[in-house]
Amino acid sequence: AQKITQTQPGMFVQEKEAVTLDCTYDTSDPSYGLFWYKQPSSGEMIFLIYQGSYDQQNATEGRYSLNFQKARKSANLVISASQLGDSAMYFCAMRERNGQNFVFGPGTRLSVLP
Amino acid sequence: EAQVTQNPRYLITVTGKKLTVTCSQNMNHEYMSWYRQDPGLGLRQIYYSMNVEVTDKGDVPEGYKVSRKEKRNFPLILESPSPNQTSLYFCASSAKQGVNEKLFFGSGTQLSVL
Protein backbone atom coordinates (compact mmCIF):
# COMPACT_ATOMS: atom_id res chain seq x y z
CA ALA A 1 0.00 0.00 0.00
CA GLN A 2 1.18 3.47 -0.83
CA LYS A 3 2.47 5.08 2.34
CA ILE A 4 2.95 8.56 0.95
CA THR A 5 0.48 10.14 -1.45
CA GLN A 6 1.00 13.34 -3.39
CA THR A 7 -2.14 13.83 -5.44
CA GLN A 8 -0.93 16.79 -7.50
CA PRO A 9 1.38 15.66 -10.31
CA GLY A 10 1.76 19.28 -11.44
CA MET A 11 0.93 22.69 -10.05
CA PHE A 12 1.12 26.23 -11.36
CA VAL A 13 1.40 29.35 -9.24
CA GLN A 14 1.85 33.00 -10.03
CA GLU A 15 5.04 34.62 -8.83
CA LYS A 16 4.69 36.22 -5.36
CA GLU A 17 1.63 34.16 -4.50
CA ALA A 18 1.47 31.37 -1.93
CA VAL A 19 1.07 27.73 -2.92
CA THR A 20 0.25 24.55 -1.00
CA LEU A 21 1.59 21.17 -2.04
CA ASP A 22 -0.37 18.25 -0.63
CA CYS A 23 1.02 15.21 1.13
CA THR A 24 -0.87 12.51 2.96
CA TYR A 25 0.70 9.56 4.66
CA ASP A 26 -0.23 6.24 6.16
CA THR A 27 1.37 4.78 9.27
CA SER A 28 0.43 3.01 12.48
CA ASP A 29 3.70 3.96 14.15
CA PRO A 30 3.11 6.72 16.72
CA SER A 31 6.63 8.06 16.19
CA TYR A 32 7.60 9.23 12.74
CA GLY A 33 9.18 12.10 10.89
CA LEU A 34 8.02 13.87 7.76
CA PHE A 35 10.38 15.56 5.32
CA TRP A 36 10.11 17.68 2.21
CA TYR A 37 12.78 17.77 -0.46
CA LYS A 38 13.13 20.01 -3.50
CA GLN A 39 14.67 18.88 -6.78
CA PRO A 40 15.40 21.72 -9.21
CA SER A 41 16.08 21.08 -12.88
CA SER A 42 19.78 20.68 -12.08
CA GLY A 43 18.87 17.40 -10.38
CA GLU A 44 20.18 17.65 -6.85
CA MET A 45 17.95 16.83 -3.89
CA ILE A 46 17.65 19.67 -1.39
CA PHE A 47 16.23 19.20 2.10
CA LEU A 48 13.62 21.84 2.92
CA ILE A 49 11.81 21.13 6.15
CA TYR A 50 11.12 18.52 8.81
CA GLN A 51 8.12 17.79 11.05
CA GLY A 52 8.10 15.28 13.89
CA SER A 53 4.95 13.43 14.84
CA TYR A 54 5.20 14.67 18.41
CA ASP A 55 5.95 18.27 17.50
CA GLN A 56 3.31 20.56 18.92
CA GLN A 57 3.86 23.34 16.43
CA ASN A 58 4.00 23.38 12.67
CA ALA A 59 7.52 23.56 11.31
CA THR A 60 8.70 26.69 9.52
CA GLU A 61 11.89 27.45 7.59
CA GLY A 62 11.95 30.85 5.98
CA ARG A 63 9.31 30.92 3.24
CA TYR A 64 8.50 27.25 3.81
CA SER A 65 6.02 26.04 6.37
CA LEU A 66 4.43 22.72 7.01
CA ASN A 67 0.69 22.47 7.64
CA PHE A 68 0.68 19.38 9.83
CA GLN A 69 -2.71 17.83 10.57
CA LYS A 70 -1.96 14.67 12.48
CA ALA A 71 -5.52 13.35 12.74
CA ARG A 72 -5.94 13.68 8.99
CA LYS A 73 -2.43 12.31 8.37
CA SER A 74 -1.51 15.19 6.16
CA ALA A 75 1.67 17.24 5.98
CA ASN A 76 1.21 19.88 3.32
CA LEU A 77 4.05 22.15 2.31
CA VAL A 78 3.21 25.83 2.05
CA ILE A 79 5.51 28.11 0.08
CA SER A 80 4.82 31.78 0.64
CA ALA A 81 5.67 34.53 -1.85
CA SER A 82 6.64 32.14 -4.65
CA GLN A 83 9.76 32.92 -6.65
CA LEU A 84 10.78 31.76 -10.11
CA GLY A 85 13.52 29.71 -8.47
CA ASP A 86 10.88 27.67 -6.66
CA SER A 87 10.04 25.90 -9.93
CA ALA A 88 11.07 22.32 -9.21
CA MET A 89 9.92 18.84 -8.23
CA TYR A 90 8.91 18.52 -4.59
CA PHE A 91 8.95 15.23 -2.72
CA CYS A 92 7.32 14.37 0.57
CA ALA A 93 8.96 11.61 2.61
CA MET A 94 8.39 9.78 5.88
CA ARG A 95 10.61 7.91 8.31
CA GLU A 96 9.04 5.65 10.90
CA ARG A 97 10.65 4.75 14.22
CA ASN A 98 10.00 1.07 13.49
CA GLY A 99 12.08 0.03 10.53
CA GLN A 100 13.86 3.36 10.11
CA ASN A 101 13.53 3.20 6.34
CA PHE A 102 12.55 6.26 4.32
CA VAL A 103 9.59 6.21 1.96
CA PHE A 104 8.92 8.85 -0.67
CA GLY A 105 5.86 10.12 -2.45
CA PRO A 106 5.71 10.38 -6.25
CA GLY A 107 6.40 14.10 -6.21
CA THR A 108 4.71 17.28 -7.42
CA ARG A 109 6.14 19.43 -10.17
CA LEU A 110 5.68 23.11 -9.34
CA SER A 111 5.92 25.75 -12.02
CA VAL A 112 6.08 29.40 -10.97
CA LEU A 113 4.77 31.77 -13.62
CA PRO A 114 6.16 35.32 -14.04
CA GLU B 1 32.35 19.02 4.56
CA ALA B 2 29.61 16.46 5.18
CA GLN B 3 28.74 14.82 1.91
CA VAL B 4 27.66 11.80 -0.04
CA THR B 5 29.88 11.22 -3.06
CA GLN B 6 28.64 9.30 -6.05
CA ASN B 7 30.64 8.37 -9.09
CA PRO B 8 30.42 8.61 -12.00
CA ARG B 9 28.09 11.53 -12.62
CA TYR B 10 27.27 10.32 -16.12
CA LEU B 11 27.67 6.84 -17.57
CA ILE B 12 26.87 5.43 -20.98
CA THR B 13 27.26 1.70 -21.41
CA VAL B 14 26.03 -1.19 -23.50
CA THR B 15 23.70 -4.02 -22.67
CA GLY B 16 25.32 -6.76 -20.64
CA LYS B 17 28.49 -4.96 -19.63
CA LYS B 18 28.86 -5.11 -15.86
CA LEU B 19 29.16 -1.79 -14.11
CA THR B 20 29.48 -0.40 -10.61
CA VAL B 21 28.31 2.97 -9.32
CA THR B 22 30.21 3.94 -6.22
CA CYS B 23 28.80 5.74 -3.21
CA SER B 24 30.71 6.98 -0.20
CA GLN B 25 29.71 9.10 2.77
CA ASN B 26 31.90 10.82 5.37
CA MET B 27 29.32 11.29 8.14
CA ASN B 28 29.64 7.89 9.81
CA HIS B 29 26.03 7.14 8.88
CA GLU B 30 24.66 3.68 9.49
CA TYR B 31 21.79 3.95 7.00
CA MET B 32 22.43 4.06 3.25
CA SER B 33 20.09 3.63 0.34
CA TRP B 34 19.88 3.59 -3.45
CA TYR B 35 17.04 5.08 -5.48
CA ARG B 36 16.24 5.32 -9.12
CA GLN B 37 14.23 8.17 -10.55
CA ASP B 38 12.22 7.91 -13.73
CA PRO B 39 9.84 10.49 -15.22
CA GLY B 40 6.40 10.21 -13.67
CA LEU B 41 7.45 7.48 -11.22
CA GLY B 42 9.19 9.52 -8.56
CA LEU B 43 11.94 8.02 -6.42
CA ARG B 44 11.87 4.25 -6.16
CA GLN B 45 14.04 2.49 -3.65
CA ILE B 46 16.33 -0.23 -4.96
CA TYR B 47 18.18 -1.43 -1.86
CA TYR B 48 18.94 -0.07 1.54
CA SER B 49 21.31 -0.90 4.36
CA MET B 50 20.92 -0.33 8.08
CA ASN B 51 24.56 -1.11 8.87
CA VAL B 52 27.64 -2.98 7.73
CA GLU B 53 26.75 -6.37 6.24
CA VAL B 54 23.01 -5.62 6.57
CA THR B 55 21.14 -4.98 3.35
CA ASP B 56 17.47 -5.22 2.37
CA LYS B 57 15.52 -5.06 -0.84
CA GLY B 58 13.54 -1.99 -1.65
CA ASP B 59 10.73 -1.71 -4.15
CA VAL B 60 12.69 -2.43 -7.35
CA PRO B 61 15.70 -4.65 -6.56
CA GLU B 62 15.61 -6.86 -9.67
CA GLY B 63 18.76 -6.56 -11.76
CA TYR B 64 20.80 -4.86 -9.03
CA LYS B 65 23.22 -5.94 -6.35
CA VAL B 66 24.70 -4.06 -3.44
CA SER B 67 27.26 -4.72 -0.76
CA ARG B 68 28.08 -3.02 2.52
CA LYS B 69 31.50 -4.22 3.60
CA GLU B 70 32.47 -0.89 5.12
CA LYS B 71 30.33 1.68 6.82
CA ARG B 72 31.22 4.50 4.47
CA ASN B 73 30.74 2.69 1.14
CA PHE B 74 27.63 1.29 -0.52
CA PRO B 75 28.28 0.45 -4.19
CA LEU B 76 25.48 -0.38 -6.63
CA ILE B 77 26.31 -3.17 -9.05
CA LEU B 78 24.57 -3.92 -12.31
CA GLU B 79 25.80 -7.35 -13.35
CA SER B 80 24.15 -7.33 -16.77
CA PRO B 81 22.62 -3.93 -17.48
CA SER B 82 19.61 -3.68 -19.76
CA PRO B 83 18.04 -0.63 -21.46
CA ASN B 84 15.19 -0.54 -18.90
CA GLN B 85 17.81 0.34 -16.29
CA THR B 86 18.46 3.63 -18.01
CA SER B 87 17.64 6.06 -15.24
CA LEU B 88 18.86 8.69 -12.79
CA TYR B 89 20.29 7.02 -9.70
CA PHE B 90 20.72 8.54 -6.26
CA CYS B 91 22.63 7.29 -3.27
CA ALA B 92 21.64 8.65 0.14
CA SER B 93 22.64 8.25 3.76
CA SER B 94 21.35 9.08 7.20
CA ALA B 95 22.06 8.44 10.84
CA LYS B 96 20.21 5.30 11.85
CA GLN B 97 18.63 6.35 15.08
CA GLY B 98 15.98 9.01 15.23
CA VAL B 99 13.04 9.79 12.99
CA ASN B 100 14.33 13.35 12.81
CA GLU B 101 17.56 12.40 11.05
CA LYS B 102 17.27 13.62 7.50
CA LEU B 103 18.52 11.92 4.37
CA PHE B 104 21.61 13.29 2.66
CA PHE B 105 21.73 12.71 -1.09
CA GLY B 106 24.56 12.30 -3.53
CA SER B 107 24.52 14.39 -6.69
CA GLY B 108 23.13 11.56 -8.80
CA THR B 109 24.33 9.30 -11.62
CA GLN B 110 22.67 9.51 -15.00
CA LEU B 111 22.96 6.06 -16.53
CA SER B 112 22.20 5.24 -20.14
CA VAL B 113 22.22 1.60 -21.27
CA LEU B 114 22.27 1.19 -25.03
Helix content of chain A: under 10%
Strand coverage percent of chain B: over 45%
Tally of helical runs of chain B: 0
What is the number of helical segments of chain A per DSSP (H or I, 4+ residues)? 0
Low-confidence stretches of chain A: none
> Globular, elongated, flat, extended or rod-shaped: what is the shape of chain B?
globular
Largest sheet, strands/sense/barrel of chain B: 7 strands, mixed
What percentage of amino acids of chain A are in beta strands?
A: over 45%
Largest β-sheet summary of chain A: 6 strands, mixed
Radius of gyration of chain B, taken over Cα atoms and rounded to an integer in Å: 13 Å
Which bin fits the share of residues in helices of chain B? under 10%
Biggest protein-protein contact in the assembly: A-B, 26 and 28 residues
Kindly name the structural category of chain B: mainly beta
Short description:
The complex is a heterodimer of chains A (114) and B (114). Chain A is mainly β. Helices cover 0% and strands 52% of the residues of chain A.
Which helices and strands, and how do they pair?
The complex is a heterodimer of chains A (114) and B (114).
Chain A (H helix, E strand, L loop, with lengths): L3 E2 L4 E5 L4 E3 L2 E2 L6 E8 L6 E7 L7 E2 L2 E6 L4 E6 L8 E9 L5 E3 L3 E6 L1
Parallel strand pairs in A: 2-12
Antiparallel strand pairs in A: 1-4, 3-9, 5-6, 5-10, 7-8, 8-9, 10-11, 10-12
Chain B lengths: L3 E4 L2 E4 L5 E7 L5 E8 L3 E10 L2 E4 L7 E2 L9 E3 L8 E8 L9 E2 L3 E5 L1
Parallel strand pairs in B: 2-11
Antiparallel strand pairs in B: 1-3, 3-8, 4-5, 4-9, 5-6, 7-8, 9-10, 9-11
